C-alpha cells in the first residue's frame, strides 16, 4: 500500500546528490525557481496544494464567470452536479466555503457544551479548534503505531454525551489510511444517533488498494457525513469550494449554520468544470506519485526515514529540533508544515514540483547533519 521506500529507483547518481548540496542561499532571501511564484515569493511545501495548479477547463470557466461580478452566486447548479456525480439526491449535498466551512457547520450543528467530540491525534486540527471555541470537550485518542486511527480505543470513548466522531481518511498529517473494514466495524458498533464525519480531502490521491474505498462509493450509514474539497487535487484552494454528502436528516441541519452566499461565483464555475475533468484528476494523481517517488529517493540516499503515504505529503524523520528546522527553511525561502502533537521528531512536507523538491533538499543539506551509516525501516514511530 503506497509507494515503498524499500525500492530505490535506478538512475539516482552523483549528479542528483550534487544538485542537492550546492552552496546555500543567504538567510532570508526569497527563492525564485522555474515554475515558482512569479513574484519570487517563497516555495510553499506547507499547505498540501496541487503544485501544478487547476485544470485549464476550470480556469476558462472562472474567467467566464467574472463577466458578471455584480451578481450573487448560485450554488444550486453545483449542488445538482455533485449529486449527479455521486448518484445521490441534491438534498443530500451541502456546499461550503472550502471543506473548512463544512467542518464549522458540523461543529455548530452537532456540538455544544456538555457534548463531546471524539477524534484521533494527531489529525487535522480544524474541527477540534472549532469545538474548543464552543466550550466542547475534545477527546483525543492516539493513532496506532502504524499511524492509523485506533478505532478500537476510540469506541469506548463514545457514549450518550458524544456529539460527533471525526475520522480523517487518509489522515492529515500522517498521510496514512485506516482500513475500510475497520471503519465499517466501528460504525456498526457505535451507539445509535452519533454523527460520524469522514473527511476525504485527499481521496483522489489514494492508489488502488483493497483496504480502502470512499464512503461515497458504497451504501452509506444513516449517521455518516462525508466531506470533500476542490482545494487539493483539483487545484482550486484559492477559490474555496468544499462539500458534504450526508443522509437528508443530517444534511438539512448543516445549511442552517452556513455563511450566506459563502461560495463565490468563480469557485462554483471552476468546480463545475473540474468535476468533469477526470483526465486531469488521473494525470495529477500519477504526477504526484512520480514526484513523491523522486522525493523518497532523495531521502533514501541521505538515509532519512519518511513515512509511506497515500496523499500529496509525507512525514520526514528529523535529527534536529523541529522548531529549528522550520525556522531554517523559512529563513531560506521555503515554508514547511507546522509542529503537530506527538510528532516532534517529524516534519510534514508537501510534495512539490521537481525543482521545488530539489531546492528543499539543497536547503536541508545546509543543516549540520550527523553522518549515518545505515537506515532502519522499522515501524514509523521508531
Following the backbone from N to C, one meets helices and strands in this order, namely HEHHEHEHEHEHEEEHHHEHEEH
What is the number of E strands? 11
Helix content: 25-40%
Instruction: Enumerate how many helices there are, as a single number.
Output: 12
Major sheet strand order? 2-8-7-6-5-3-4
Distance between the termini: 19 Å
Radius of gyration (Å): 21 Å
Q: What proportion of the residues form beta strands (DSSP E)? A: 5-15%
Q: Which structural category do the helix and sheet elements fall into?
A: alpha/beta
Q: What overall geometry do the principal axes of the alpha carbons give?
A: globular
Overall residue-averaged pLDDT value: 88
Low-confidence stretches: 1-38, 373-379
* Major sheet summary line: 7 strands, mixed
What does this 3D model show about the protein?
The chain is of the alpha/beta class and 382 residues long. Helices cover 32% and strands 14% of the residues. Helix 10 (278-301) runs parallel beside helix 12 (354-364). It has twelve helices and eleven strands. It has a seven-stranded mixed sheet, sandwiched between helices. The relative contact order is 0.20. The model is unreliable at 1-38 and 373-379 (pLDDT under 50).
